[in-house]
Amino acid sequence: MTGLLVLAVLATLLAGACFAVLLDRAQPALVAEFFRARVETEAPDRLNRDLAPAWYLALAAIGLSVVPFAPGLALIDSPAGIVIWGSCEALIVVTIFLHGWAPNAPFPLIGAYRYAALALPVMLPSMFVLIAAALPAESLSLVAIVDSQREIWNVIRQPLGLPLFLVVALALTLRGPMDYADGADIATGTSAEESGAARATWYLARAAMLVSVSALAATVFLGGPLGPLLPGPVWLWLKTAALMALTAWLGNHVARPPPGRMLTLLWILLLPLSFLHLAISGVLAL
Q1: 167 and 122 in contact (C-beta within 8 Å)?
Q2: Which one of 90, 116, 161, 253 is most buried, counting C-beta atoms within 10 A?
Q3: Which helix (H) or strand (E) holds 223?
Q4: How many CB atoms within 10 Å of residue 227?
Q5: How far apart are CA 112 and CA 20, in angstroms?
Q6: Is the pLDDT of residue 201 over 70?
Q7: How far apart are CA 66 and CA 59, in angstroms?
Q8: So what's the pLDDT on residue 16?
Q9: pLDDT (0 to 100) of residue 210
Q10: pTM over 0.90, yes/no
Q11: What are the domain boundaries of the chain?
Q12: pLDDT score at 145
């Protein structure tokens, strides 16, 4: 069974990453990028430069491994699945920062510091929202959270949860209004000095992270593998694909405000709103 779950995680990442590339309509450029020569900056940190995409991809796989593919069945069935995901979120911030640090160049470093400044006020609401979703289950286990949604999904009893978490999804996947690390205004930021296979690998790792964060959102808010007639994994894949498409659409159509204004929105609006959401969910769970 463990082997099947490992295959399910890997197949979901691979198929989902291909779907994410199709959503962005970037597949021709991505394929061509693999055949381009790599251009290096002066005195780069080669170890972190090469490890950053690998860490990003590994964190996407670890995050997906706590997601149940069927009721009661996850590769990592941990009583603290939410905590494991929270650890992945924190390490994603470090990974993206190192991706910008490694080239030893201005634009990547600006992207790295800019992302780090915005990451803290995004990660805090994420934990508030996920803990609120765990309250009806009285557990931090994602298997228990799925089981608690047999009668009603969390997206219905906690309607603010999914919209708030989609902001987190945009930040973790560097999309649209939350793409301050690889933004076009700083010549693609942390990726500005990347080329060839390294640039394509970073893009694929971002696509894999979109799969992972969408699968987690589908599990926490949409009942994951729960559904009539179809097998549990199929329901999870369908819900994950729908959230991937929604996140990609938001990334393509929501304008990005200046960093200073976004920081104000995150600290003054998003953080208090997520805490209020947690408080209301706690009262309703009593």
Answers
A1: yes
A2: 161
A3: none
A4: 15
A5: 24
A6: yes
A7: 11
A8: 87
A9: 94
A10: yes
A11: 2-285
A12: 94
